[in-house]
């Protein structure tokens, strides 16, 4: 019973194509994220959605468009794929609402989607 | 501008010994720190965390130490086991940042039997 699941796990596609990665969480969390792990293994945040509202957009090219149909889902659509988009993309979720300062929250990550653009 | 740094790309330790993984940060506004463990082809898994009001947090074999004045934290694993072999990521956040984590580049830990 996976907490954060994303599909597909592997995606190989040609330059110029459009592709989507789906993510679902069953933890009841109110915030979801997309992170990118590049070839140098750095994990960097791309987007954050809180209750379906975009909160963080880390200067990601507008070819990347996240969509959150509800609190449990955050999909990532990528237009006109480029070679440099090849990376592992991780979806994550956490519970941010609560109001307590320095509350103990941690993000739960999906297994990742390895995108290869050829 | 790498605000969280793990300067050791790899660490090799004998089973039963202590593993010490280090992490430095530059942003003094960070007030919550986490360690994640990652196996190949899997997502990062939360291991242990510490808030900036503490200097130590312990959970079984894992202890995280925070030195705010030095902007340094470390993860101690005692005793180390072969199953601990993985990539360990240090991460930091602001409690007001809607969960945005800033990660270090990771340290590959290998525990030899």
Structure description:
The complex is a heterodimer of chains A (118) and B (113). With 118 residues, chain A is mainly β. Helices cover 0% and strands 53% of the residues of chain A. Chain A is built from no helices and eleven strands. In chain A, strands 2, 4, 5, 6, 9, 10 and 11 form a seven-stranded mixed beta sheet that branches. The radius of gyration of chain A is 14 Å and the shape is globular. In chain B, strands 2, 4, 5, 9, 10 and 11 form a six-stranded mixed beta sheet that branches. Chain B has a five-stranded antiparallel beta sheet with strand order 1-3-8-7-6, with no helix packed on it. In chain B, strand 6 and strand 7 form a beta hairpin. Chain B is globular, with a radius of gyration of 13 Å. The termini of chain B are far apart. The interface between A and B is medium-sized, with 30 and 26 residues.
């Amino acid at each position: 019973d996976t907490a954060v699941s994303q599909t597909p796990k592997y995606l190989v596609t040609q330059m110029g194509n459009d592709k989507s990665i789906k993510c679902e969480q069953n933890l009841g969390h109110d915030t979801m994220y997309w992170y990118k792990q590049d070839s140098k293994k750095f994990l960097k945040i791309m987007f954050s959605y809180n209750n379906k509202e975009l909160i963080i957009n880390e200067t990601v090219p507008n070819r990347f468009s996240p969509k959150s149909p509800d609190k449990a889902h955050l999909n990532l659509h990528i237009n006109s794929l480029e070679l440099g988009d090849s990376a592992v993309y991780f979806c994550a979720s956490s519970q941010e609402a609560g109001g307590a300062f320095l509350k103990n929250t941690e993000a739960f990550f999906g297994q990742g989607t390895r995108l290869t653009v050829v | 501008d790498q605000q969280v740094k793990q300067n050791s790309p790899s660490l090799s330790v004998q089973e039963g010994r202590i593993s010490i993984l280090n992490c430095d940060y530059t942003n003094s506004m960070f007030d919550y720190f986490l360690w994640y463990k990652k196996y190949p082809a899997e997502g990062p898994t939360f291991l242990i965390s510490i808030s900036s009001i503490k200097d130590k947090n312990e959970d079984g074999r894992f202890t995280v130490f925070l030195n705010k004045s030095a902007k340094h934290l470390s993860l101690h694993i005692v005793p180390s086991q072969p199953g601990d072999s993985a990539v360990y990521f240090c991460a930091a956040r602001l409690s007001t940042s809607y969960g945005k984590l800033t990660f270090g580049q990771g340290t590959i830990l290998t525990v030899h039997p």
